[in-house]
Design a protein that fits this description.
Bound molecules: zinc ion
CATH superfamily of one domain: Immunoglobulins
Shape: globular
Largest sheet: 10 strands, antiparallel
Distance between the termini: 47 Å
Number of strands: 33
CATH class of one domain: Mainly Beta
CATH topology of one domain: Immunoglobulin-like
Structural class: alpha+beta
Length: about 725
């Protein structure tokens, strides 16, 4: 960027980015210093400072720049303190303010930037729990997942078996297979991105097989139909893979070159194929390798073709393959192809490192390690950030870690909806400036899925419950609310004030299979682990066996009706007595500085082990219980679930004079079918909860009284807009 310098005045800017307006000579002055956005640096990493000056070029006098520490606990070293763009390193952790000062003679202008320096995360990251066969016993989740299996996925399959479906169908795979077999083929029918919808739906079918139907005839029938569909689809999909491993039906049928057009979403689609293949491999108990082998052939093809010279430099217009390659690398660990993992990780990093010469829309405006603010298309962004978090986790690279934590801080503290949604839509399907959080949000369902993927990786990196708090918030509100209760319709956007009914399909059906594959991966969101610790991130009634914990298989049963009630019982059945730590998340709601909850939630109400009260150590948001566990050991805890009033930061214009209601992870809405949604709720009006078994599949409602004396009835956000009318989160309170 070209910087224009001019007369600078004895005017010290109070905050970054404010222009200095003074005009002693009658000459327009546009001198401004911008020290950049606030950020986090993970030590021993550096932060990349890019000071910017804009001014009137009619006054081209000599000018000097100087970076300095204004405040902070340690020393700050600048690689070149006199350059606008430089690196700063910090001797110790803490909050720093850095100042950039431009000087000409006695005239100065300056601006500051806040930097939080933090220590590295634990040396080893936690491991994900790949979704194993499991039971869902929680009434809340049983209904939601059953409707996805019985209604939603079969609906998506019907669409994808319809040759008239313009957004793609299995027919395109058949035609690509015809071409590869040297036979006549029909034209490509789907749109240019069509393959991935089918992969997401197919992955959802695999994940749906992991759920024990517990004798439910509708689930049993739906699962059987899905197995038939997979038996039909898999050979057709495999027939469309080119001999070198490349797979994209449109490219094969239309004889398009590979890796030439970054808008073709080749990586995004390839990544979803790999994720489908891994889910299928898991579903088969590791016995059916057809798709996994195809995914390996595909990844090998990408590795052979893309990379540092003499290979081709490339990045995708839509991130997604990066997280899939890292997942594939992890999936192969300990197996015969484990030696491929390093190539897949290197390619994932190369694809991220190849970004940097484009624009904000697809996060190519800067090298990823110098991106500190969430910008551009929200789904692309959060998939990219999840990939960066993966690379940071696998390599420990401090520049990656610093960028990831900076992006996370900006996202959560400046651009985050109370529903856990992201993407205000101020830019094209993307983020606006800080605090631009209109209630007429875009908040695509896929960006909610990506938010979950991102927080999950950060929880594994930092062993910190705050990321699971956010994951829960997005899961219960943003993603669960994207389908209706019967799971017949979905929504692409999730505004916090809406009258739009959900619909069965969309001309860009990216969300349709993404919603179900995200919601049906519950065990992965509930637990993470290390060899000797089990992290309980979500409280969902369920039963599953963890293959190895403290050296032995452990059956873990959660019995709870959370989020309706706070009582949770965990029963542990290790195959042989085993010593490991149980880390129970203590839910907190204050991770995002945008929102203040009243009353605060006071941690756990109680915790017992085999009936004996325990006062646990709380470490990074987890209550720690470490002991030798024996079959039948029981841990009981009680989570407080008061109704909370939520106020948003004064910086957010859209929520001024409004309050939101929340109970546990559930954000509430008021709906026009129940009341006048423009009514005012007095700040001190009492609020009570009531179980309504016959309303909205059974919900805990919040009741109160508006200022005009009329009753208030609030329902959970996920159940919104199932009865028509208008639904909104933020209620007038003055
Ligand atoms: Zn989508």
């Amino acid at each position: 960027m070209k910087h224009l310098f001019a007369t600078l005045l004895p005017f010290v800017l109070a905050a970054a980015g404010l222009p200095a307006h003074a005009d002693p000579d009658g000459i327009p002055i546009a001198a401004a210093v911008d020290a950049g956005c606030e950020r986090t640096v993970v030590l021993p990493g550096a932060t990349y400072l890019t000071g910017q000056l804009t001014a009137d070029e009619r006054l081209p006098h000599p000018l000097t720049l100087l970076w300095s520490k204004q405040s902070g606990p340690g020393d700050v070293t600048f690689s070149n303190p006199a350059a606008a763009a430089t690196e700063a390193r910090f001797s110790t952790t803490g909050e720093y303010i850095l100042r950039l000062t431009a000087t000409r003679g006695n005239a100065q202008a300056s601006a500051t930037v806040a930097v939080t320096a933090v220590a590295q995360p634990p040396a080893t990251h936690l491991d994900p729990l790949w979704t194993p066969p499991y039971q869902i016993t929680s009434p809340f989740w049983h209904k939601r997942t059953k409707n996805l299996i019985v209604n939603w996925i079969p609906h998506c399959v019907r669409k994808l078996c319809d040759p008239q479906n313009r957004e793609g169908s299995i027919g395109d795979f058949v035609q690509a297979g015809q071409i590869l077999a040297g036979k006549p083929a029909a034209a490509h029918e789907g749109n240019e991105f069509c393959d991935w919808f089918l992969y997401n739906v197919a992955e959802s079918m695999c994940l749906a097989q992991m759920i024990d139907p517990q004798g439910d005839p509708q689930i049993i029938a739906a699962q059987a139909a899905m197995r038939q569909t997979l038996d039909d689809w898999i050979p057709k999909i495999l027939s469309a893979q080119e001999p070198d491993g490349y797979l994209l039906t449109r490219a094969t049928i239309k004889h398009l070159p590979h890796w030439r057009d970054v808008r073709a979403h080749e990586g995004y689609q390839a990544g979803y194929f790999m994720e489908f293949a891994m889910a299928h491999h898991l579903m088969s108990g590791g016995r059916d390798r057809r798709l996994l082998d195809a995914a390996i052939r595909m990844a090998d093809c990408w590795v052979r073709n893309l990379g540092p010279a003499p290979k081709q430099a490339w990045h995708d217009g839509h991130q997604g393959i990066e997280i899939a390659l890292v997942q594939l690398a992890r999936h192969l660990e300990g197996g015969p192809e484990a030696n491929k993992s390093k190539d897949y990780l290197a390619l994932a990093r190369f694809l991220l490192d190849s970004r940097g010469n484009g624009d904000e829309y697809d996060q190519t405006h800067l090298p990823v390690t110098r991106q500190y603010t969430a910008v551009g298309h929200a789904v692309r962004a959060v998939y990219g950030y999840a990939g960066m978090a993966d690379i940071a986790m696998e390599t420990g690279d401090a520049a990656y870690r610093s960028a990831v934590q900076s992006l996370w801080g900006n996202l959560i503290n400046r651009k985050y909806y109370i529903t856990g949604s992201i993407g205000s839509g101020d830019t094209n399907e993307g983020f606006g400036r800080d605090y631009a959080l209109s209630n007429n949000a875009y908040a695509e369902s896929c960006s909610g899925c990506g938010e979950i993927f991102f927080q999950h990786r950060l929880q594994m990196t930092w062993h910190d419950a705050r990321y699971a708090d956010l994951l829960e918030q997005t899961l219960y509100n943003a993603v669960l609310g994207s389908v209706d209760l019967e799971a017949n319709n979905f929504t692409y956007t999730n505004p916090l004030d809406s009258s739009e009914p959900r619909y069965p399909w969309h001309n860009c059906p990216c969300c349709v299979g993404n919603i179900s594959r995200t919601l049906l991966r519950l065990p992965t969101w509930i637990y993470t682990r290390s060899p000797d610790a089990l992290y309980v991130n979500l409280y969902i009634g369920s039963r599953l066996t963890i293959d190895k914990l403290g050296g032995t298989p452990v059956e873990v049963t959660q019995t709870t009706d959370y989020p309706w009630h706070g009582k949770v019982t965990l029963t542990l059945n290790p195959a042989t007595p085993a010593t490991f730590a149980l880390k129970l998340r203590v839910p907190q709601r204050h991770t995002s500085s945008l929102y203040t909850h009243t009353p605060e939630v006071p941690g756990l109400t109680s915790l017992t082990v085999n009936g004996q009260p325990v006062t646990p150590l709380i470490d990074h948001g987890y209550a720690l219980v470490s002991r030798e566990w024996h079959a039948g050991d029981r841990v009981e805890l009680d989570l407080p679930l008061p109704v909370q009033r939520v106020k948003a930061s004064d910086m957010i214009a859209a929520t001024s004079g409004r309050v939101a209601l929340r109970r546990g992870p559930l954000v509430y809405n008021i709906e026009s079918v129940d009341q006048d949604v423009e009514a005012v709720l007095a700040p001190d009006a009492p609020l009570t909860t009531h179980w309504q078994p016959n309303m909205l599949d059974g919900v805990m409602v919040i009741k109160g009284t508006f200022q005009d004396g009329k009753p208030l009835l609030a329902i959970p956000n996920y159940a919104r807009l199932n009865r028509g009318g208008r639904s909104l989160v933020w209620i007038k309170d003055r």
